Protein: non-specific serine/threonine protein kinase
Amino acid sequence: MHRDVKPHNVMIDHEQRKLRLIDWGLAEFYHPGKEYNVRVASRYFKGPELLVDLQDYDYSLDLWSLGCMFAGMIFRKEPFFYGHDNYDQLVKIAKVLGTDELNAYLSKYRIELDPHLAALVGRHSRKPWTKFINVDNHHLAVPEAVDFIDKLLQYDHQERLTAKEAMVTSRI
Structure:
């Protein structure tokens, strides 16, 4: 698990048309069932599992971060989730993905939010991705790109695309 996927850690080789992920300083080998530190990743790219202190996360954390990066590029809104601190980061995510989905995720993994955080999060309906499409980005927000974002930005890390699935299914 890289655990710090963000634009500054992606190098582009234009000549060979390749991307390289750099800065593996926070990386760890994944071992099923092991608990990991949640104080990793840069705020705007932190997966919900980190923001709710779920310590037995996995490599799907990096796919969430990819989804944040890709959403920022496609919708021309960088960072896509712009929280002022970790609590606000979860609020920003909930305002897009909805709180019903967040509560289902929390219930599935038996996670209780800190009461202060729960109050901050409040209640929000899921926003359709079309709300983020405008005159400046509609040429980028093709259905395949939006579907790819939707499959990466899932609260439940077990529901996100794997890296292999992302490479096979996306032709963006």
The mean pLDDT is 97.
